[in-house]
Amino acid sequence: MGCTSLMIFKQRTTLQTSVIRDLTIQGECNYLSAASGLVCAYGSAYVVADDQQVLARFRDSYQRGELLELSTISLPKDAKQRKKQKPDFETLFLLPSNNGAASKLIALGSGSGPKRNHGTLVNLDASGAWTGSPLDFDLLPIYSELKRELGDLNIEGGFVAQHADLGQTQLVLINRAVAGKSANAAVYFPIGMLHDAIDGEYKITKPLDICEFDLGELDGIGLGFTDATPLADGGWLFSAAAEDRSNSYNDGVCTGSVIGRVSPNNSLSVMKRLDKKIKVEGLAVQPKSTKLRTSKRNEILNVCMVTDADDPALVSQMLAAQF
Length: 323
Description:
Layout: E1 3-6, E2 14-15, E3 18-22, E4 35-41, E5 44-49, E6 54-58, E7 66-69, H1 79-85, E8 89-96, E9 103-109, E10 118-124, E11 130-138, H2 140-150, E12 155-163, E13 168-175, E14 184-190, H3 191-198, E15 209-214, E16 217-218, E17 221-230, E18 236-244, E19 253-262, E20 268-274, E21 280-285, E22 290-291, E23 299-300, E24 302-307, E25 317-322
Parallel strand pairs: 1-15, 2-20
Antiparallel strand pairs: 3-25, 4-5, 5-6, 6-7, 8-9, 9-10, 10-11, 12-13, 13-14, 14-15, 16-17, 17-18, 18-19, 19-20, 21-24, 22-23, 24-25
């Protein structure tokens, strides 16, 4: 483990949130109930859910989201059987193209079960519309190595980062802790590892570095990462939830969530508790953030979040905050 970061969390600052919309979608289901990954780009919000096999694109705050089926395999309707069979997409991030004309969306399974070791690639055109068919790729060789390193694996977030010191682009995967079994951790790979996995090659499976984080507790329950997104200064923003659970497979009672910031040197700098008792599972920063006039170093980050209530009868929501 290359680094360890610790912050003693004290409830001093509450982050005010506002609801942007319910995540209603086109199709038979009508809504997302377990939103787990979020990307804001091309004037749209892209959302993936961990109990469905669809990617949703929301162009505004009122129209139903457009859907792209990520798999032709049907999931069982029974909740227990569905949980066993679902790919558990917990991570969604943008992979920029080399020429800058278009991008790719990458959804990753959590690795917390035998059916959850796959990723899916969706090509976007220059306007942000998906094009072609989704491409499935295997993550088992990489996740097997991570399980040996981390223990109880649960990849909840990921992003592409530019590492200034090394002068290279890296893929960062975010693991969610399970008490006594695994740690909250950021795992760093060269970006070539992702391209190799997409191509079905596995030249690299060992990470460059693993940084563990002690996020402390919220109302007596340990905080665990639920998503992360990169910042322009080389640091990153994360969401974390306090959920009472004994392993990476089963859900538990959630007492709330926080948003925090990690500096470019992987030190925790601040965490703020959300004003609502919700489980945030997806996090993104709006492309345009406004700088404070009082300080050149500080900026207001316009943050978007999506929720997961762990209840198929409840619609997920998109919220906004200024961090």
